[in-house]
Amino acid sequence: MTSAVYLENNLDSLEHLPIELLRNFTLMKDLDSRARDLMQSIDRQANSYLQNVRSMGSDKRKEQMEKIQAQFNKAKEYGDDKVQLAIQTYELVDKHIRRLDSDLARFETEIHDKAASNTRNQEEGGSQKRGRKKIKEKDVKKKVGASSEDESTKVPRKKAKKAGAKASSGAKSAAKGAGAGSAGNTSADGVVPGLAHPSDVLDMPVDPNEPTYCLCHQVSYGEMIGCDNPDCPVEWFHFPCVELKTKPKGKWFCPKCSADRKKK
């Protein structure tokens, strides 16, 4: 796969990312605005309650306190929704980063494979040339040996020509045989065995500086819930780890804080 194909695939996958990010940021901004208005309303009601608390009856006081508490709970829900949106946005961007890292790793592997294949082909081409050179040297030595033998035995000129022709034909046949053997070796060794590609990098390592949460000591992902104990050492938990499928109503305490509260 060429670099242009990798680039095209990544651009296609990133086509809708800006729209999704804009939607999430708009929702978080809207939640911020709602929570701010709600907190201002709580401040006004709290000041009014403190100023008129002495003149209120017990029923009126209880009603005002419940109203203020309900608004606090609503503000907390806005905050939780904003946290969930932030987690979703992070995971959305992280997914594309992991895919880009995976494509880069595959592309680098393909480049190394091609370089190794070219080097292997060049080495085999050099060995074939050296083999042909040796065959030619042997052919020349045979011709020189045949001519010296004719002179030593004092063969007549015509016979010497015939003997030289025979020697030459023998040398040619030997060269052909050697050439055929070399061609056989080339067909056997000339095939470059395919190099195994490593498996796709699907899960890249998590950033070691990223904080961990929950009982499982893992990074944030999916839906999470915060413990309402301000002194909780863990604070945030994944839904599956605390056996939750939906967000419970009212205050929620983690297993450790629940056990501590029961002991008290």
Summarize the structure in words.
Residues 155-164 have a biased composition (Basic residues). Zn(2+) 1 binds at residues 214, 216, 238, 241. By secondary structure, this protein is mainly alpha-helical. Helices cover 70% and strands 2% of the residues. It has five helices and two strands; from the N terminus they run ααααββα. α1 runs antiparallel to α3, α2 runs antiparallel to α3 (58-152) and α3 packs antiparallel against α4 (157-189). The chain is elongated. The model is unreliable at 151-204 (pLDDT under 50).
Primary descriptors:
single chain, 264 residues, 5 helices, elongated
Estimated helix fraction: 55-70%
Query: How can the largest sheet be summarized?
Result: 2 strands, antiparallel
Strand order of the largest sheet: 1-2
Percent of residues in beta strands: under 5%
Task: Write down the Rg.
Answer: 42 Å
Whole-Å distance between the termini?
Answer: 65 Å
The mean pLDDT is 73
Shape: elongated
Structure classification: mainly alpha
Helix-strand pattern: HHHHEEH
Beta strands, count: 2
Give the number of helices. Answer: 5
Secondary structure topology:
Blueprint (H helix, E strand, L loop, with lengths): L2 H11 L3 H36 L5 H95 L4 H33 L34 E3 L9 E3 L16 H9 L1
Antiparallel strand pairs: 1-2
Helix pairs in contact: 1-3, 2-3, 3-4
Summarize this structure briefly.
The protein is mainly alpha-helical and 264 residues long.
